Amino acid sequence: MSKQQDNSKDNKDKTRVYEYAKSLNMSSKEIITILKRLDMPVNNHMSVMEPAMVNKVEGFFRDIKANAAAKRAQESGGATVSAASSPQSQTASKPQASQANKNLSQDRQGPMNSIKTTSETNQSQQEQRPAQPQSQQENNNQSQPSASASEGSSNNTRPQNSGNNQGGYQGNRQGGQGGGYNRPQGGQGGGYNRPQGQGGQGGNRPQGGQGGGYNRPQGQGGQGGNRPQGGQGGGYNRPQGQGGQGGSRPQGGQGGGFNRPQGQGGQGGGFNRPQGQGGQGGGFNRPQGQGGQGGGASSRPAPTSRGTAAGESTNRKGNNAVNKNKTNNTGHQKRFDDGKPNFRTNPNGRGGKGGRNNRHQSNQPPREKIDNTPKKIIVRGTMTVGDLAKLLHKDASEVIKKLISLGVMATINQELDMDTILLIASEFGVEVEVKIPVEEDTFETVEEVDDEADLTTRPPVVTIMGHVDHGKTTLLDAIRSTNVTGGEAGGITQHIGAYQVEINQKKITFLDTPGHEAFTLMRARGAQVTDITIIVVAADDGVMPQTVEAVNHAKAAGVPIIVAVNKIDKPDADPDKIKQALTEYELVPEEWGGDTIFVNVSAKQRLGLEELLEMILLVAEVNDYKANPDKRARGTVIEAELDKGKGPVARVLVQHGTLKIGDAFVAGNTFGRVRAMVNDKGRRLKEAGPSTPVEITGLTEVPLAGDPFMVFEDERKARAISDRRSIKQRQSELGANSRVTLDDLFKHIQEGDIKDLNIIIKADVQGSAEALKGSLAKIEIEGVRIKIIHSGVGAITESDINLASASNAIVIGFNVRPEPQADLAAQQEKVDVRLHRVIYNVIEEIEQAMKGMLDPIFKEVVQGQAEVRNIFKLSKVGAIAGCMVISGKITRNSEVRVIRGGIVVFEGKMDTVKRFKDDVKEVAQGYECGITIERFSDFKEGDIIEAFVMESVER
Ligand SMILES: Nc1nc2c(ncn2[C@@H]2O[C@H](COP(=O)(O)OP(=O)(O)OP(=O)(O)O)[C@@H](O)[C@H]2O)c(=O)[nH]1
């Protein structure tokens, strides 16, 4: 036995009840019933059938048959049995339960067939003999000794040699091709994936010879002998070669030649088979070639050495199965209704599929088996055995069989994973295309992985940021007009939120909303649009707060920075001063040993622009920005508005794939179909590839800047998705937020959600910001690191909130307050803003939060704000602030703080609130009032008096 055979024996060395039952076309229950009657140990369908048990069961069948035969002989006086299967004979033996009886009665019919068998292939010993009466056959069988026999021995007395002479000799004799007689696993596995060679041969084993010839391009299939399912595997998927030969088994020869494009069908054994099915497997799905040869003829299931000569007499159905599939079945009919069309046609009881007549279609001409196996299937995820079978145009049982052959026990409803699906499909020679659908409702979160081969270089997308008046807009305009692509010169430039220029035959896309606000807003909305940022610094001015903000925003986004030192035309320009100043922010010029590119430009005089563009291309080349243009488009809405003439328009940056006219899409929570597409030169486009900005019409509503954009196969789907997204958004607005807040920081840390605690510091003076930074840096809590992503001086701005939102950061205001817009944004974006006046408190709060000890029992709730319009100084009471309540309400019991230019100048208790000389409890928005504050009288016009209370909050 070969090594391969050895390797596969573990899987094949046990016949279980259900397998055995299946081999007999019986139910497990029936076999279990029989085993129990025979006092054999059996639990359930998975119990192992020991050879002794098999023998017993077969002996049981034999006895029944013998009884029935005797009875029939009595009735008919031993007359020669005609080919017709009499109903009486079918019902004659009824000692057992239904299925068993059916089989048995069929079995009994076997010997009545008057079939002359001729082996047309390798069975020289095949003889043509007239049918013999059952009794005689029995005798013959019994008289056959278990003598040794050589392979394919010309034992003329043994017709069954036609089927099993190469491997399936019964009994304990030597013979066949040496394969595994009397071994439980003899000959198994022979020929798996072997390019050539002879399949395994087996004898006297429960599943001997099964593996012979799987996937072998050439060679002889497995041969089996004396086994319930012998020879099954012979020749699966073999392009050429001889099918498996089976012998002495209930379903001998089944496997021969499955799916073989050419070659000879399996030779079915069929000796001693209860159903006498010869050579079933021969030539399944074979476009060409010889049919399987039907096997031997013994009508007996007995696994003994009997049956040599007798088999020929009657019970054979399968000999000479060579291309006999078209012939009508004139022979005796047998029921072997296992649901497979291939098994149901029995040409003359001689064909390769012999022995398996469908009793319902007995007189119909057998149909040509058309192989309608698809070449390729599309798989969109796991599926059940049944679904896969449908997709493969196969019977579920065929798929199950394949699974079993691969060592997987499965039912029709069992879910198959992707690997198994691929394996099974390849077993059937079917190509699989895996298409996992995107999580359509949250398509922006799905990262599509493209094949490296499908990617092509795309233009980089650049954003310009910098301090006010440093020349961002001028630079953008200068670049736009300097580098208009050849043929498009003279086109009417359109503002579509971005434009493209071309230099050295390479394109660059510029987002033309300068400033980090737009940049960060996009990021806060989850859109990562920019590849490269240009920080513009005026050489005559220097590094300013917004320069620093811009640097921090770019860094937080992890986007490469190029510094454009602008206005170098100015006499007081000092580029080196800028370089020097920026080293503080880790932007060190290359000439100083750093890795930041600095370019001196004059936007106004258009100096250095080309170099700047070349540097952009250089960075782009290094980073190798690529996209797959051959798929449906995905991108981001840069701007959108309701145009009077065109309706809703969206300016979209295509980032992946190609957007085409007519494409149905979802943008944020809106949907539409691209009606028209215009580029930044005002030209109408039919399609737009990666990094192309376009203005599109055809939307139903106006999406938001930063909204994700994606094309779907049809408008109905797009609408459904946009509807679901709207609902989801509303739900999430109502539900909990996932932003980091100090209150649940510990939870996040514990869950491992965050490792860096991002903090933005805004303070009244640079000194306190630095002090705070230094103190926070010293906090050491295991598992989390504090990362100051931005710090600055002044009120907390909307831009700070956007940055916090984009970076999941907490904002700490030290002696400063949020601007009204920032306050609103913080509420909307659910950014945690902590306001303090004492550094120690900040440190303690953060530390406690990190340790999970934060006690948020009290929380400050701002009630309203009043603006000081007049100041009345009274000698007795000090100063009264004549105020207008500009938001919320002011109450007498609240605590107050006085804010001047975004900075808290005093915090204390409210003293009185008056309306026209009367003390009142509260004053609402839009009303005037007079306010006095305990121990404070230094009001100034324009001060904001903020009233707040400390409320207990549920944890
Ligand atoms: N001399 C000189 N002036 C320039 C240059 N670039 C821009 N300016 C001038 O600087 C002023 C501000 O330029 P903008 O382009 O509006 O600056 P910005 O950064 O876009 O300003 P905001 O939009 O307010 O943030 C304008 O008067 C420009 O003419 C330059 O290279 N040289």
Low-confidence stretches: 1-12, 78-362, 485-490
Instruction: Give the rounded overall mean pLDDT.
Output: 69
Largest sheet: 6 strands, mixed
The CA-CA distance between the termini, in Å, is: 73 Å
Ligand inventory reads: guanosine-5'-triphosphate
Helix content: 25-40%
Spatial order of the strands forming the largest sheet: 9-10-8-11-12-13
Q: Based on CA inertia axes, which overall geometry fits?
A: elongated
List the total number of helices: 23
Percent of residues in β-strands: 15-25%
Rg result:
44 Å
| Secondary structural class | alpha/beta
Number of strands: 34
What does the model show?
This is Translation initiation factor IF-2. Residues 457-624 form the Tr-type G domain. Belongs to the TRAFAC class translation factor GTPase superfamily. Classic translation factor GTPase family. IF-2 subfamily. This protein is of the alpha/beta class and 955 residues long. Helix content is 26%, strand content 21%. It has a 6-stranded mixed beta sheet, sandwiched between helices. The chain has a 6-stranded antiparallel β-barrel with strand order 15-16-21-19-18-22. Strands 27-28-33-30-29-34 form a 6-stranded antiparallel β-barrel. Residues 1-12, 78-362 and 485-490 have low confidence and may be disordered. The site of guanosine-5'-triphosphate has 16 residues, from helix 13.
Give a concise summary.
This protein is α/β, with parallel strands linked by helices and 955 residues long.
